[in-house]
Amino acid sequence: MAEKIGVYVCHCGSNIAGKVDVEEVAKWAGKNCADVCVSRDYKFMCSSLGQAMIEEDIKKEGLTRVVVAACSPHLHEKTFRRACSNAGLNPYLMGMTNVREHCSWVHKDRAAATEKTKALVAAAVGRVKHQQPLEPFYVDVNKATLVIGGGIAGLQATLELADAGYPVYLVERQPSIGGHMAQFDKTFPTLDCSACILTPKMSEAGQHENVKLLTYAELEEVSGSVGNFKVKIRQKARHVDYDKCTGCGICVEKCPRKVLDTEFEAGMGNRKAIYMPFPQAVPRIPVIDTESCIWFERQKCRACEKLCPTNAIAFDQQDEIIEVNVGNIIIATGWKPFDCKTIPQYGYGRLANVYTSLEFERLCNAAGPTNGKIVLRDGKTEPKSIAIIHCVGSRDTRHNPYCSGICCMASLKFGHLVLEKTQAEVYSFYIDMRTNQKNYEEFYQRLLGEGMHFVRGKVSEVTDAARLPSEQGKLIVQCEDTLIGKQQRFPVDMVILMGALEPQADAREMGLKCGISCSMDGWYTERHPKLDPVATMTDGIFVAGVCQGPKDIPASVAQGAAAAARVAGMITKGKVMIEPVVATINDDACSGCKICNNMCPYNAIEFLEDRGVSHVITALCKGCGTCVSACPAGVITGAHFNNQQIGAEIEGALWDALQPAGAAASQPETVAV
Amino acid sequence: MSNVDPNFEPKIVGFFCNWCSYRAADLAGSARITHAPNVRTIRVMCSGRVDPTFIMKALSLGADGVLIAGCHPGECHYIEQNYKAMRRFHMLRHTLRAMGVEDQRVQLVWASAAEGQQLADAIDKMVAEIKQLGPLGWSQNWEENGQRLKALEDIVHEHQEAMEVPV
Asked: I need a labelling partner for A219 at 20 to 30 A (CA). Which of A24, A33, A291, A512 fits?
């Protein structure tokens, strides 16, 4: 039975018609392409009139296939599918070919562009004949959500969903939620105290009836797909019984072993072997660090166990795997600071009074190791001059090419805190000042007025080798001031390195577990950089906060809330549509060679031992088609992209290649392979 | 290469992956980055979908070249399927070399959705290279090749098993 094909060539105003003779293409297709019974051109095919025209033809002419030659299918495939659907034609019997972005917009020669358009139309006509009616799948959405990462972005997402009445599992690697924001003293540009705005949210999450906190826990494995993910979480052994502990803190107080706190205090202070990272920690359940605990080292001490009023210490506690079922996952895993030792000429780790920005945050935090007094490493001397070096490891092709986004504002904040608390002079060494959010520029202007000094240039070296008597005992910052074109030396007492924000060390590994990808830099790739910055290419997996790219607190909060809104939308809808572009194996013809089994990155192909054949688990298949092209027997079919369809498309695209010159007029399908 | 026909316009079939390269070509369009009109695009979901027989088929049907474009390694929408495309590409290239098909005629490029310019440059470069080479001419000898084609496809399928090294 011959198909009845309708071909619709869009002018797109003059966007296509300006470079392509669309009337000629429509006429040509009607005459030369087999089975085409309607061929029209129209000013704006996507307009309601254009769609109505297609719908009417389907009904009146009884079209069985539709080809639309217009813009990118990424723009209007849905529009034309809907039009077909409205007229009673299965939407997967429509094919779009892109003659705007791929043709009229990029070619200069009208004749060549018209020729290419014909080939693209011929290809689409060839393909559409072999397209098959498909039905999308619908699956129920589990109401529970997994949020990975308890920083501000993850917290916001958690609370939005929990407040909407949906259960949330919040997984955090550290013993407490809070993330990096808990370490900060003040937040720019409003200078409100970080803890004052963060800790209420933390305790709200800790007490919320819809939130299940899993702190000191890590994501182990994700299986399933949108609507129904099965997640395995490793609850690391705290060696403290979660249910018995009241958080009184006697164990922490009595623990005799002090160690350097390299995480929360960024190496600026100490903690005990049994510890809560900070006083406002949520949950208030301490953790035993087995690497420094005397009991784990040499089976002695047990002071905490003896003194615990509720017998909550459990030395023999083991890691536990918790399994949860969720409908969606929000990844908010944040960032790690750049290792400033990577740039040896800045002296971090070698020169005592060179600090990282996180160290300085702890130094000026009222709850930090010096109670907020800005002093040098000796613990008493107040610095008389401080240099802040921007872009350490960012905007630097040797390290990270991207801008970390927050450091300009953070250094202005540091400048303000130093000027407020000390008599010191502050020098800021910048490449460009980037203060482009609400009230940020105003804060910059304020600091200019407060007397912070700005030097435009990239610092070449920080050294303690004095050349002049005035440099004795100082750190000398060597920098070309590019505004006056002079090399200058700035003797200072303290240097703060504004290190880059970097992706977590295991970001790629985590991405792989969840089936999402990272950019070259290691940040998670969003579905669309402008129009869909919270979803990812994997349905049901969302990203929020810095793990998607450097951003400040307001942007992280906004993205966390946005991700939650998307998840809430999915839950409210109750069902999710899955494109029917999946692979199927003809099990009668499968030889059971298992070649396809290892091709699939989603483990969607299982081997049925009893029947000796491979089988695609439809719910897991994402439709990439790699197994289809790998099957040596050719018995895997990729729906909507099968061999017949692509083969016909190749033939159509080369319709004029087999014709002798000048006689390129007959039907495209002259050769059967 | 003395008899290069200045009027020769190569016909190239492009297999572009839906997520990166097809979008890169879309971006080239939105940014009006002009490039040679010789590549006729076929959209596939992933460069991993490109069966070596598609390439053989295109060449046998008169294409002067085939361009496969996918996401950068490490950025595949399907995690790592572009590596599989790469593996197949290099294996097929060996076969094609043995058959006297120049390397420039079948190319694999990476273009992220942000790299409209790079994709346009790659297309221009490829078209210029094939113009230098002249027509492939498989279709001119269609009778003969038509008979051989079956045998060629058989060779590819025969070797496919060896080409797929499980990860």
From this structure: A291
